[in-house]
Every structure is written in structure tokens, then in C-alpha cells.
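Fill in residues.
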């Protein structure tokens, strides 16, 4: 099972955020002052967003689901894997 999850954060209206894209800032998802790959994001309205934590998104800085290998599977393959995960929990 994939343990990578996006950062779920609420951004305030009218604020500009520096988003970490280097993957090493301890303040992630927000960039530290010395982040070499900070992404400037101006937010117009208060909103809950999913920010990428894996670096694979094609819609940076937002999560597009690329962190999940199940996104490349067929529906039946994903269902089979999810069923096996679920059964694994009951067998413990
Ligand atoms: S965390 Fe979802 S695409 Fe990176």
C-alpha cells in the first residue's frame, strides 16, 4: 500500500505563500527561507487545498493523484489490490 499522501492545508484569501518544491524543508509544505526551489503561490480566496508531497504531480504545487500507483491501474486491478489490503487487515 502507498503511504504517500498530499499535504491538506487551508490557505487564506489574499495571501502569497512560498511552497517548498525541494522536498527537504522541515517547514513543508511551506518553503524555508533558504529553499532552493520555492514556488510562489498567490491565493485569491480561502480554500482547502491538497499540496503535492511527492514531487510527481503534473499540476504543481497541487496534488493530481500521481503519488498513488493505483492511478495507473485498471479499475479491476485497483479493486483487487484494495480488496487484498482490506483482507490483510482482517487476517492480522
Ligand atoms: S502527493 Fe499527490 S501527486 Fe504528489
Amino acid at each position: 500500500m502507498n503511504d504517500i499522501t498530499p499535504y491538506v492545508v487551508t490557505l487564506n484569501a489574499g495571501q502569497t505563500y512560498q511552497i517548498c518544491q525541494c522536498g527537504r524543508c522541515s517547514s513543508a509544505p511551506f518553503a524555508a527561507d533558504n529553499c532552493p526551489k520555492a514556488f510562489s503561490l498567490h491565493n485569491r480566496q480561502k480554500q482547502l487545498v491538497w499540496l503535492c508531497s511527492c514531487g510527481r504531480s503534473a499540476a504543481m504545487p497541487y496534488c493530481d493523484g500521481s503519488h498513488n500507483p493505483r492511478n495507473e491501474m485498471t479499475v479491476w486491478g485497483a479493486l483487487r489490490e484494495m480488496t487484498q489490503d482490506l483482507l490483510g487487515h482482517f487476517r492480522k
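Residues 4, 6, 52-54, 56-57, 63-67 surround FE2/S2 (inorganic) cluster (CB under 6 Å).
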